[in-house]
Each structure stands twice: as C-alpha cells, then as structure tokens.
Sequence to fold (140 residues):
Amino acid sequence: MTVLLSQLHSSCFSDDPWPPQAMAEIVAMIGFVGRIAFENEEAAGLALAQGIGEECEILALGVVPARRRAGIGSALLAAIVGECRSRGARTLFLEVAEDNIPARALYAAHGFVQIGRRANYYRRRSGHADALVLRLLLST
Ligand SMILES: CC(C)(COP(=O)(O)OP(=O)(O)OC[C@H]1O[C@@H](n2cnc3c(N)ncnc32)[C@H](O)[C@@H]1OP(=O)(O)O)[C@@H](O)C(=O)NCCC(=O)NCCS
Fold:
C-alpha cells in the first residue's frame, strides 16, 4: 500500500515526491486518515490527513494530472471532511502555497478561510513562495 501511495503522490506532486519509507511513517501515525480515488480501476488521486482530538490536518491532497478538473479533488476533500467530522474533530487545517491557484480555489469552494501565513515556506526554482494556513470549522 505504501508503494502505491508513494507512486501516486509522485504523480500528483512531481516536484516533491514522498518515498515509500516516508509514506510508511505517515500511514503509521496516530490518527492517520487516508483516501485513494480510483477511476476506471486506476488510482487517480489521494488525500492524507491526521486527526488528533478535536483537530485534523490535511497533509496531502492530489489528483494525477490527466484526471484533474473532473471533481476528484473535491470528492477526496469531502471524504476527508466527513471522516474527520465522524471522528469528532471540530477544525480542519492545511497549508497551501500562495501561488497554487487551483488548490486555493478548491479549498475556498469548500469553505476554508485563511488564518495565517508562513513566509517563504516553499522553495521554488525562482525563489520561494509563502504558505497560507487555512482552516475549516467542522462544527458549523
Ligand atoms: C488542487 C487539485 C487537488 C484539484 O483537484 P481536481 O480534481 O482538479 O479538482 P476538482 O475537479 O474537484 O475541482 C473542484 C473545484 O476546485 C477549483 N479548481 C480546481 N482546479 C482549478 C483550476 N485549475 N483553476 C481554477 N479553479 C480550480 C474549482 O472551483 C473547481 O470547481 P469547478 O470545476 O466546478 O469550477 C489538483 O489540481 C492537484 O492535484 N494539484 C496538484 C497537487 C496540489 O497542488 N495539491 C494541493 C496541495 S495543498
């Protein structure tokens, strides 16, 4: 399973692949929540999160390039939100690069709001990009 997750993550995040060993550590974390989307029996996307107590955090959400803009990212996000809710979480956090327009649009459409910023958090070929910290209140 961790090899599949690692391959899928590499397809979705070609600039920052997570090797199988790193993926194995994530899957073994306390409160791990994961979903894989399949399309025509092929893995098309993944969502990885961790929930502890009243807080959940999305660690990765990605869809393979050929399957984007078909509702898979939205479905994965909804699945994670539902699972976190059912575990009793009240807030869901994530970080997204300020220059990641598709992801920011997806999260905004699901009701996430910005609550913070981490300067120069992501490395880019031409410098750095800030991370925006987003939050979704699950109790409302
Ligand atoms: C962000 C990502 C997960 C979206 O997945 P997706 O399956 O393409 O998203 P969906 O088809 O479910 O889109 C849902 C909504 O998100 C927004 N959205 C998605 N892609 C968009 C784009 N390229 N431009 C503008 N808005 C976009 C739209 O509001 C869209 O609704 P609409 O299609 O009705 O207009 C995908 O682009 C991806 O894997 N990117 C690379 C990895 C990544 O950056 N992950 C996020 C890390 S924080």
Remarks:
- The CA atoms of residues 74 and 109 lie 9 Å apart.
- The beta strands are 32-39, 42-52, 55-63, 91-97, 113-124, 127-137.
- The chain has one domain: 2-137.
- The domain at 2-137 is CATH 3.40.630.30 (Aminopeptidase).
